[in-house]
Write a structure and sequence with these properties.
heterodimer, A: mainly alpha, 26 helices, 2 strands, 3% strand, B: mainly alpha, Helix Hairpins, 3 helices
């Protein structure tokens, strides 16, 4: 089946083309076509995954274009990481397609929504199948475009349009770096192929500072896409899009593309300690920084957005400290449980029609399925045994500890405490306590089956998936996806203790403050007011960027505008003035001298004519006389003049 | 007896002088025309004389004369036609009174 891997992205692409081009002429809204295409892709991906587990590897490519000796190739490859990503992407995309039947029901641009969802799925699948940097970059931009279109789905609202633009422009900052990085790689390795670049690195043709710079630039692209510090600002705003989109794109797949990129290009990161340290520290800072903001957010989707940023930071740390498998494994588990959390939050929003958690409360009675699946997702995110997040987060902490990155280890532990705290807080505010908005509470209802069934499937996966890389299965995943050679971290009671302690402390503190009210929430806020204000304002990053980049751009434009108006316009006007003066002078010259000369000649000819015409007497005999005299004189001159 | 070339040329020059004089002094257009014929015929005598005395084996002068006589005939026809038209319009053919060609 693995030979059919190329079909996996082609099916959703065909669906996109059909819905967007032919969709007008057929009945239906395109939803069934999209679901069928992605469903088929899912089945195919599962078959491919089993094939790959059985040892199958496929790579095929063809020459796309060549310039002299340089060949551009396009092709695909199927290896464990690609097969894993194929299943993750198609599975979540499939569930989101089904979920959207209920969530987007009756939307104004229902058909467009499904068309772009298909395009996104196709692009994301193309990205994980691509066997070279250039194709990866093309699909990378395509998913960015789809993200832009889907964030801006309800573009009538101005904020939504701005959020879409912000996402597009912010990721573009990273993409520019990434493109330069790719060109740098191409310049040194003379190829875009992943395996070709790896060979060049292994052969020592591509090493040293150039390699480190290229790796860091590639990482810049990942920073943008995966919303890492300092380009994280777009992801929370991207929550303006439909929640189903947030689940698919801004939790599970698109934002994970950055992590996938680093993993796919690990061959150029691994030999460069500088690049690895950059990845690890950017990830570490992002992990704790975003988690701390999530502590105080009131919007349920913003909590999840910052949580996503933070968890992506965890994955980056894992890759940076050498825990390749741990990073990928966390990517997979996070995709499942964060998609679950987003879809559950979408179900809640669908029921109460607000995103502010302070207007919710007590919903567990009204929405039991949503509550239980959310609870499982939360537990997985907090890292509670035996849910998926426990296994993957433990692996990351273990990798940091084993690699001797003590500072990063403690940062991650604190971030894990924050994680447990904010997700418990969100759970309590949403589902427990007294309903704080009676009207909304009365209206709330459990969502239809199209929305709850995907939740149940994801919840089940969130429970069992962690065991794929646990002692119970002999660390199976570590032997499936690895870089260079399989690595089995020795279990460490120290790490296990702190991993467990982190969620116990976080969950406990949240229950004490929000659940039981033992510690007054007010008192905490009052005592920590400066910190609270700092977090509430997201470290003032939006304001800083507004000041530096938006206002800076405006200021520069103003200066440039002034320069344009005063200097450039001045020069232009001066030239114009000079030209006008000059033409006036030449005009006068024309009028006086040239016209004078012409008229003068005419006058001369006329007056000459007036004199000479007297010779023309009209008497024939006078002419003949003149002729005769002339002939005689001529003869005399001829005869005697010599 | 043979006449010398200069005698013939003298006759020719005399005729030419008479013709020019007549053409310049006569007021009757017919007379002017006749005098022009004299001038042309003096030229004819010259041509024939030079042909006879300088190159007798070739009849070049005679051929030229035939041409001149043809032209003279044409000229006389055109001239007489013009004079006829003038006579019809003005009822006289006094050249002194005919100055339409001025200016």
């Amino acid at each position: 089946m693995a030979e059919l891997a190329w079909l996996v992205p082609v099916l959703p692409l065909a669906s996109f083309l059909f819905i967007s081009l032919a969709g007008q002429t057929v009945k239906g809204d395109g939803d069934r076509i999209g679901i069928a295409a992605v469903g088929a892709s899912l089945l195919l991906s599962l078959a491919i995954l089993f094939d790959v587990i059985g040892g199958a590897r496929v790579a095929a490519d063809m020459v796309w274009a060549f310039f002299g000796s340089i060949q551009l190739r396009m092709g695909y490859q199927v290896d464990p990481i690609t097969a894993t990503m194929l299943v993750v992407v198609t599975l979540i995309s499939f569930l989101v397609h089904i979920y959207s039947l209920g969530y987007m029901h009756g939307d104004v641009r229902y058909k467009r929504y499904y068309a772009i969802l298909s395009l996104f799925t196709a692009s994301m699948l193309g990205l994980v199948l691509a066997d070279n940097f250039l194709m990866l970059f093309i699909f990378w931009e395509l998913i960015g475009l789809c993200s832009f279109l889907l964030i801006g789905h309800w573009y009538e609202k101005q904020d939504v349009g701005y959020a879409a633009m912000k996402a597009f422009l912010t990721t573009r900052v990273g993409d520019v770096g990434m493109f330069i990085g790719i060109m740098l790689i191409f310049f040194h390795a003379r190829t875009f192929q992943f395996d070709g670049v790896a060979q060049a690195v292994a052969a020592g043709d591509f090493a040293g500072a150039a390699l480190a710079v290229a790796a860091v630039l590639i990482f810049a692209g990942a920073v943008g896409k995966s919303a890492q510090f300092p380009l994280h600002v777009w992801l929370p705003d991207a929550m303006a899009g439909p929640t189903s989109v947030s689940a698919l794109i801004h939790a599970a797949t698109l934002v994970a593309a950055g992590v996938y990129l680093v993993a796919r290009a690990y061959g150029i990161f691994a030999p460069s300690p500088t690049a690895l340290m950059t990845v690890a520290w950017v990830g570490g800072i992002t992990a704790i920084f975003a988690a701390s903001i999530a502590l105080v957010m009131e919007d349920i989707k913003k909590v999840l957005a910052y949580s996503t940023v933070s968890q992506l930071g965890f994955m980056m740390v894992a890759l940076g400290v050498g825990g390749y498998t741990a990073g990928i494994f966390h990517l997979v588990t996070h995709a499942i449980f964060k998609a679950l959390l987003f879809l559950a939050s979408g179900s809640v929003i669908h029921g109460v029609d607000t995103q502010n958690m302070h207007e919710m409360g007590g919903l567990y009675k009204k929405m039991p399925v949503t509550f239980w699946t959310w609870a499982i997702g939360s537990g997985a995110l907090a890292g509670i045994y035996p849910l998926a997040g426990f296994w993957s987060k433990d692996e990351i902490l273990l990798a940091a500890h084993e690699g001797g990155y003590t500072a990063l280890f403690w940062i991650l532990v604190i971030a894990a405490v924050f994680t447990a705290f904010y997700i418990t807080r969100a759970t309590i505010l949403t589902f427990f306590g007294q309903p704080r908005d009676k009207k909304r509470f009365d209206r709330a209802h459990e969502s239809p089956a199209t929305m709850t069934v995907p939740l149940i499937i994801l919840a089940a996966l969130a429970v069992v998936l962690g065991f794929a890389n646990s002692p119970h299965t002999g660390w199976w995943f570590s032997h499936f996806v690895y870089f260079d050679h399989p690595h089995e971290a020795a279990a460490s009671p120290f790490v296990l203790f702190w991993a467990t302690a982190s969620w116990v402390v976080g969950v406990g503190a949240a229950i004490l403050i929000y659940g039981l009210g033992v510690i007054s929430r007010r008192a905490v806020i009052d005592n920590l007011r400066p910190v609270w204000a700092l977090l509430k304002n997201k470290y003032y990053f939006d304001e800083l960027y507004h000041l530096v980049f938006v206002r800076g751009t405006v200021a520069i434009s103003r200066i440039v505008g002034w320069f344009d108006r005063v200097v450039i316009d001045g020069i232009v006007n001066l030239v114009g003035y000079g030209a006008a003066k000059l033409s006036r002078a030449t005009g006068e010259f024309d009028l006086d001298v040239i016209d004078g000369a012409v008229n003068g000649i005419a006058v001369l000819v006329r007056s000459g004519g007036a004199v000479l015409r007297r010779l023309q007497t009209g008497y024939v005999q006078s002419y003949v006389l003149a002729l005769f005299v002339t002939v005689v004189v001529g003869l005399l001159v001829f005869a005697f003049g010599g | 007896m043979t006449l010398s070339l200069s005698v013939v040329l003298a006759v020719s020059a005399l005729m030419f002088g008479l013709g020019v004089y007549g053409a310049l002094t006569q007021r009757n257009a017919i007379r002017v025309l006749m005098c022009i014929e004299l001038v042309l015929n003096s030229v004819n005598i010259n041509l024939v004389a030079f042909s006879r005395y300088v190159g007798p084996d070739q009849a070049l002068g005679q051929v030229f004369t035939v041409f001149v006589m043809t032209v003279a005939a044409a000229e006389a026809a055109v001239g007489l036609a013009i004079i006829l038209m003038v006579a019809r319009r003005k009822a006289h053919i006094d050249i002194d009174q005919i100055n339409l060609l001025k200016w």
